[in-house]
Amino acid sequence: MNKRLDYISWDEYFMGVALLSARRSKDPHTQVGACIVNEKNKIVGAGYNGLPIGCDDDQFPWDKKGDFLQTKYPYVCHAELNAILNNIGMDLRGCKIYTALFPCNECTKAIIQSGIQEVIFLSDKYEGTESAMASRKMLDGAGIRYRKVEARMDNLVLSFKASDV
Fold this sequence. Notes:
With 165 residues, the chain is of the alpha/beta class. The protein has helices at 10-22, 79-85, 105-114, 130-142, and strands at residues 33-37, 43-48, 96-101, 118-123, 145-148. It has a five-stranded mixed β-sheet, sandwiched between helices. Helix 3 packs parallel to helix 4. It is globular and about 65 Å long. The chain starts with 9 loop residues before the first helix and ends in a 17-residue tail after the last strand.
């Protein structure tokens, strides 16, 4: 018997972990996840967009518009920053980060400072914005590779039924 040929690639696997992590986000508008992988294809960090530890999700706003302090923006940590902060305590130099959304300029600063060497993203919905342009300029300046993930599939269904295992 030959091995299965329909297994997922490393990129699909790690982007899948990022997308699964995004499902932990309480944000009603945008759910983003990130997964950091070392050069041996071992996961060393994961995160999603959400409030800092200790901040009650029910006590802070989730609005996108309005007075700045009444929106989510001053409070929410992005997935990439959370993945960096949630890493297993190792040096991230040489690692890759998989993220559902191309990183903003603030997360790009953290990515560069942490030593991550490649950014793999799924969506670039803010392409052309000043934040995305600043991110690209910094990544280029720091010599960090970035690319859109190339998946062979459009979706993958997970089942929590024991009978499906």
